What does this fold into?
Amino acid sequence: MEDTNSQTSESLSESESGAAKLPGGAKRVGAAIWSYIEKVGQFYWTRQGAIREYLIDFVPLYRSHRLAQHEIRLFAYQTKANASFDESGWRVRLPEWCVVCGNSDCKRVRQKHHLERLRWTIVAPIAALLISITIAALLNNPWMIPLVTIIGFPVGYHLTGKVDVRIEYYRCSEHREAKEFPAMRIFGDQLIIRTGNKSIRGKFLDEGRDQPGAPT
Ligand SMILES: [Zn+2]
It folds into this structure.
């Protein structure tokens, strides 16, 4: 038993001394590359739900009709009395009813959000996959598929944009702490706002038609 232990500890110390011979610069570069890969991987891992939702938005057939009744879809090119978009981002004013339950006894909330624009986050890896298949076919080398596809992820990570949204909405005392609504996401040039009560959508659309101008 003692022999085995001593052999193990010897071989360990050998490999340690081998690693120690690596120049400090190479070790630092290796650590930096690894931490970058981790950062990009973590970025995509934590956005699985948002990416799935974005892909579903592409195919209206898969969207839940019930959820769509709770969603307000705004287009960047359309200015309404209660919603507008310019280079500083979106400004939106929801009706004076609770965004969760539609109750009328409410307090106003004003917030600023930074929403991610996931278009390139998704398009870059898909484009890299298509390019990789072409290169693999031209070079007759299937290894080009993973090698080129993987490049799409850091590209998508760096091209992920942000959009500012200034929103004004209302909460009743019961839902003062309910954070799940309004849930917002960006799809292409659209801002999609999900509320907890479908009457908010109807009231919002009515108020948008009421008077010209935009919220300030
Ligand atoms: Zn409420």
Q: What stands out?
A: The two ends are 79 Å apart (CA to CA). The helical segments are 2-20, 24-45, 48-58, 65-68, 119-139, 144-149, 152-159, 198-210. The beta strands are 71-75, 83-86, 89-98, 106-117, 161-172, 183-187, 190-194.
